[in-house]
Specification:
about 190 residues, seven-stranded mixed β-sheet, nucleotide-binding, alpha/beta, two-stranded antiparallel ribbon, metal-binding, FTHF_cligase-like_sf, Rossmann fold
Length: about 190
């Protein structure tokens, strides 16, 4: 399938999930994540859940990161440039939802992209090679290109991979891992 078709398919699949299933599956996914050997890093970029899109609830991952005393980075999007500004999450960080219902930090201590070692990546679909389909705006495509080559890219999904995404571009950056409630998928030869 092509990205456009996959977006429709996986938005429909997510819409079929009840609030109870979303919570249960998000917790199971976080428990899978604990098994992954990525805890020797310091700076972890975490997206904040768009509840209206029925995304994986990243609150559980946030709790794991805080419990492991990691530096948590959250971002703010500039829709005119597709740039993301990254901020250190602190007890004083205040959030506001933007026009797309994305919770964003109002301000804070800015963190350079070069410091980020692990990125949790939102997605709608992915394939068995680690290629992802997002919402189509391109924020994460731009962001991931700016990251250091050894930055770990971890997708979060309620669903299993597609066999093949037809319209992958040479500029698309594949994921290293995808965590689901039932399994960890590894795509990088280094993992």
């Amino acid at each position: 399938m092509r990205k456009k078709e996959l977006r429709i398919k996986y938005k429909d699949l997510r819409n079929g999930l009840t609030p109870e299933i979303l919570e249960e599956q998000s917790l199971a996914l976080a428990n899978q994540l604990i098994q992954l050997h990525v805890w020797d890093k310091t700076y972890y970029h975490l997206y904040l859940t768009i509840e209206e899109q029925k995304e994986v609830n990243t609150e559980f991952i946030l709790q794991i990161l805080a419990g492991k005393d990691k530096e948590i980075i959250v971002s703010k999007c500039d829709f005119s440039t597709l740039a993301m500004t990254h901020y250190l999450l602190t007890d004083n960080t205040k959030f506001r939802k933007n026009k797309y219902n994305i919770p964003e930090p109002v301000d804070g201590l800015e963190v350079p992209t070069a410091k980020i070692e692990v990125v949790f990546v939102p997605l709608l679909a992915y394939d068995v090679k680690g290629n992802r389909v997002g919402y189509g705006k391109g924020f994460y495509d731009v962001f991931l290109k700016q990251c250091a080559p050894n930055t770990l890219k971890i997708g979060l999904s309620f669903f299993e991979p597609e066999r093949y995404i037809e319209d992958i571009q040479a500029t698309d950056i594949p994921l290293d891992f995808v965590i689901t409630p039932n399994k960890i998928y590894s795509f990088s030869a280094n993992n």
